[in-house]
Please model this.
Amino acid sequence: MLAVHAVRHLRDFTLDVTFSVRQGETLVLIGENGTGKSTVLNLISGILTPDAGEIVLGGRKLYSGEEGIDVPAEDRKIGHLFQSYALFPHMTVFENVAFGLRCRKVPRPEIAFSVENQLRAMNLADLSDVNVGRLSGGQRQRVALARALVLEPELLLLDEPLAAVDMRAQSVMREELRDRIRNAGIPCIVVTHNLRDALELADRLCLIEEGRVVVEGAPEEVLGMRGNGFIASFAGSGPHNGLMPRAPITGHSQRPPDSRPLS
Amino acid sequence: MDSTPFRQSREVIRHEGGRARVSRAGLTLLVAALVALFLLFVTLPVASLFLRISPEAFLRSLTEPVVLDALFLSLATATVSTVIVVLFGTPLALVNARHDYPGRAIVDTLTDLPIVLPPAVAGIALLMAFGRRGVIGQYLDHLGINIAFTTAAVILAQVFVASPFYIRQARASFEAVDRLYEDAARTLGATPATVALRVTIPLAWGGLVSGAILSFARALGEFGATIMFAGNFQGRTQTMPLAIYTTMQGDLDAAISLAIILVAISFGVIASVKIMTRRSL
Model:
């Protein structure tokens, strides 16, 4: 269980979010570019520090402004997948996946065992000695996921996990990803621009506008709120169109669902 | 009749086009001449070194003690000073590339200072600091430590003048490493020290090595600060540039041989830096 209340002053607005994610639950964050979705993930994983608030993961306080607690990123046990995957370009697939175990000073034979198992589970065994520069988008995503999961994290943060994957491979990869998240049985937060990601991965959906959670609920419930300009364009773009929504935010998220925007 | 003005204007255009072509050709010729003259100016003196000495004389002077002593001393001191520069410069460059703190601009300016400082000034400044009556030297003298006019002084002079070459290059290379990799490493459990050793430094490696090579080359060529602060004693402080200066007055062959060795090393340095920074020669 993850409970987040985080405040951080950004250049254009103040990010102030409160939400929680249960064990085994996947929360999907949607919203326009630049509304602070990725920042939320960075605050949780410890890359950025909130200005105030409290972040608790499975009873461990990772951050507390009042108590002056700020657990460093390396001790948080959180798997964070970046949009570009950030695979280490100077290492092979094996070395990338082994990186976190090496940092934890795990004995060499155990590292080899865990990494090989993980690579096999991810269908990456053949690529073990390949330099990551030669991988496809889908392979990179799997390596990044393997690199995080091999450490048995207590929370998974995925920033646009399928954005760099070939369009044709996306639906297969999405199903694969959903199964892996389910199997991990830990709380998971996914940031996405893609309606299908939201529909297929989310147990719960959160709309963020200007650094605030404006709508939160079951996917069908949230996507039914066509009164919100973002949701209208997001859900209205149809299941075949996974592109980023282009319509501007109207900011009237509190409008009743039946009042549709003009135009 | 209607077409006449048209034809005329075309003629004019062709005429002006011709003039433009002529002036462009002239410009090309001028630039080519300037480039050729300059290249000649650079290569001719270097080539003259090779033309003024026979291979036999070159090989013979390679066995002379003054040449061997200088060669050994230069390679040893430049290696030691490069190691010192790398040890002190790497953390400094990394901190300045990644962290903002009050006074960072001042630290940057101070580390760059030796580049613009004339070597003779560096020499007398080092003497005033570490000489027997120097600001620090007087206390060292009480402890029985004497730096000026020793091999240690050669190394200090080289570190002083060569450090900016490494630190500047190292800082630029660290800045070029995408922070995302460092962030990813942190979330995977790497402490800041591990991030530096396993991610940032390996990713900046090419730049660090080429910076170290440039620094080594500058140390190898050090003359002004060395002769003022370390003196000119064969086998102890007489590095290759100093030996060239000294032997030139008597044994010209030895001076030319030393110069040729330095030219060879310089070419090696340029080639390896170009390779490290992945550009073609």
User: Anything to note?
Assistant: Residues 238-263 of chain A have pLDDT under 50 and may be disordered. The longest strand of chain A covers residues 2-9.
